[in-house]
């Protein structure tokens, strides 16, 4: 009775061979078998920010559908972030959360009706500077104080090299877990990609996807978490 969450920084679909191959990213996602996937760097940075990962390609490969965070019809996500869910999962509330910092950053939030119960997933790609990462997590924590209690996962690229980097800004009840070294993909050393689990969300198992195309399709490996949900009041 679990759900499989996945986070993947796809590096605009540029692999370690410096070739842009969205088909490799779609293959990795299809084989990962996630119920919910949070993606970073899915769009180009300039102009209208067109999708580097084509929607039709990735939805056809995975059977998942993309939640409507994009502000432009040519983009897949918002601030380069996208969230995909299995057909049996329905969003009941979605929100873009602008985050403080020198560089433009944002988080994507979805409250979901799943076969295992209600779940809130927040996708993040935090800043490069530690002070701003703490402010960004605090902004997410402040936003959550206005939302109903619900098992919550804050998952994505935390850009945190320190093993001691925490999730204190999210508020009480969250604990941060790094499933394994995820960067650089060919010889992973740093645990940049992490998940913060809130009350009611139990991490049953976690890990990285480190086989096949995942070793070369991006500069990050995907991380995954098998989670169970506790009922909320």
CATH topology type: Deoxyribonuclease I, Chain A
Shape by Cα distribution = globular
Query: Could you state the order of secondary-structure elements as H and E?
Result: EHEHEEEEEHEEEEE
**How much helix, percentage-wise, in residues?**
10-25%
Give the low-pLDDT segments: none
Distance between the termini: 20 Å
The share of residues in extended strands comes to 25-35%
Instruction: Determine Rg (CA atoms, Å).
Output: 16 Å
Strand-pairing-aware structural class:
alpha+beta
Q: Got a strand count? A: 12
Which CATH architecture would you pick? 4-Layer Sandwich
Provide the spatial order of strands within the biggest beta sheet.
3-4-2-1-12-11
Q: Under the CATH scheme, which class? A: Alpha Beta
Mean pLDDT: 95
List the topology elements.
Blueprint: E1 3-9, H1 22-32, E2 36-40, H2 55-62, E3 65-66, E4 82-85, E5 90-99, E6 105-114, E7 117-125, H3 130-144, E8 152-157, E9 175-177, E10 193-197, E11 201-208, E12 223-229
Parallel strand pairs: 1-2, 7-8
Antiparallel strand pairs: 1-12, 2-4, 3-4, 5-6, 6-7, 8-10, 9-10, 11-12
Describe this structure in words.
By secondary structure, the protein is an alpha+beta fold. The protein has one domain (3-229): Deoxyribonuclease I, Chain A, CATH 3.60.10. Helix content is 15%, strand content 33%. The strands form 2 sheets. Strands 3-4-2-1-12-11 form a 6-stranded mixed sheet, covered by helices on one side. A 6-stranded mixed sheet has the order 5-6-7-8-10-9, with helices on one face. Helix 1 packs parallel to helix 2. The longest helix is centred in the middle third of the chain and has 15 residues, at 130-144. The model has no long low-confidence stretch (mean pLDDT 95).
């Amino acid at each position: 009775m679990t759900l499989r969450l996945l986070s993947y920084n796809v590096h605009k679909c540029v692999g370690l061979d410096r070739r842009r191959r969205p088909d490799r990213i779609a293959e990795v996602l299809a084989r990962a078998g996630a119920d919910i996937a949070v993606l970073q760097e899915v769009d180009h940075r300039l102009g209208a920010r067109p999708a580097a990962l084509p929607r039709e390609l990735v939805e056809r490969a995975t059977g998942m559908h993309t939640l409507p965070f994009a502000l432009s019809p040519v983009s897949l996500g918002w601030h380069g972030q996208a969230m995909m869910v299995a057909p049996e999962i329905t969003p009941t509330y979605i929100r873009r959360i602008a985050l403080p910092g020198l560089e433009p950053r944002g988080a994507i939030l979805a409250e979901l009706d799943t076969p295992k119960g209600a779940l809130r997933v927040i996708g993040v790609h935090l800043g490069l500077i530690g002070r701003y990462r703490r402010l960004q997590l605090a902004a997410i924590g402040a936003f959550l104080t206005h939302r109903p209690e619900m098992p919550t996962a804050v998952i994505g690229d935390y850009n945190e090299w320190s093993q001691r980097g925490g999730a204190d800004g999210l508020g009480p009840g969250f604990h941060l877990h790094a499933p394994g070294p995820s960067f650089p993909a060919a010889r992973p050393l740093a645990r940049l990609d992490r998940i913060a689990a809130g009350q009611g969300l139990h991490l049953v198992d976690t890990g990285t996807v480190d086989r096949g195309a995942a070793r070369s399709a991006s500069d990050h490996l995907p991380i995954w978490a098998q989670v169970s949900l506790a009922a909320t009041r």
